[in-house]
Amino acid sequence: MTPQNTSLRLVDATPVNSTQRIDSAQNDLVFSTPNDLYEAFAEFLQIDVANGDATEDTIRAYYKEIGLFTRWCRERNIEPEQATRRHIEAYRENLKTNGAAPATRQHKMSIVRRFYEAAVKHGLLSINPAANVKGGKDLTPPEEKIKALTRGALHHLVAAIPSTTLLGQRDRAIVALMAVHGLRRIEVHRLDHDSIDIAGDVPTLKVHGKGNRVRKIYLREDTYNAIQTYVQAKMDHEFPLTGPLFVSHSNRTRGQRISRRSLNDIIDHCLSEANLKKVGVSCHALRHTHGTLAVAGGAKVEHLKEEMGHNHLETTSIYVKAVSRKENNPANFIDVQF
Length: 338
Prior knowledge:
Elements lengths: L6 E3 H4 L16 E3 L2 H13 L8 H20 L9 H13 L4 H20 L29 H9 L6 H14 L5 H6 L5 E2 L6 E5 L5 E5 L2 H16 L23 H14 L9 H14 L4 H8 L4 H15 L11
Helix pairs in contact: 2-5, 3-5, 7-9, 11-13, 12-13
């Protein structure tokens, strides 16, 4: 294969018949790799990832990771199509040196492997130089990685969020959906006004989760009221009651769907105001809070699995293990005081 030293901007290089659109935030990410290698990867994303039904976020994440990898190659005068196993291992070592956790390295390396798998599949390379190059083992049990708030800390967080301001009412509703109903950040971001359904006995929320899967969440009375309080405040401030549910209230982006980055900032601010902000405690910690407090309160794991939108019961079981380890601490059975 004759390398084509062509630097392609990611969004410009997307095939015109692709059903996936790359967010404009990726405009400055340069995808430096020969056209044919890129096109093989683009076809792979459209056909093979998630059986051809990958979400826009997944597609964007794959492009971003390969953009970072090919840029790393170019900075070291390595043509991506000429990379060897030694180069791939050097990239993994670079990730480790820069502080990437084992799980992060595993994710990044899996995408690099699939990048080269696509090239082999299309006859552009004879071997996959990234084959069997793993990201590194993480021996920490999943239940020990959970960052969750205690019941008392969650009470304190809620109390610290103003209930009489437009921003406070929005933020209380967001925290309620994350901590009480276990919504992911992306799921909160995707909510629209018509996601709310009050036709039945109990208000429900249609949630668009990972892999284009949709699930129904039964809202508690207080969380539904928190949402309605925010909706009423939006109306009072002359925001439209169609389209995105949670919007920006800043002058520059007023009325636009709230971004995922802004959701991070909102939760971090709320945690900081309540003196609960720590390393690793952010949006996803509220989802973990939902899982642990629900199990501790007696929720059945199979019901929690459906509520959280997990594919496998084993994923949900980490909350059972986390709560069980705390409640069944062997040290508590030793009747000696120090």
